[in-house]
Amino acid sequence: MATQSMVLLTILSEAVLEDTLIDEITELGATGYTITDARGRGAHGLRSGKWSASGNIRIEVIGDEDLCQRIAQRLKENYDRDYGLLMFTSRVDLLN
Question: Which domains occur in the chain, in start order?
Answer without folding.
Answer: 3-90 (3.30.70.120)
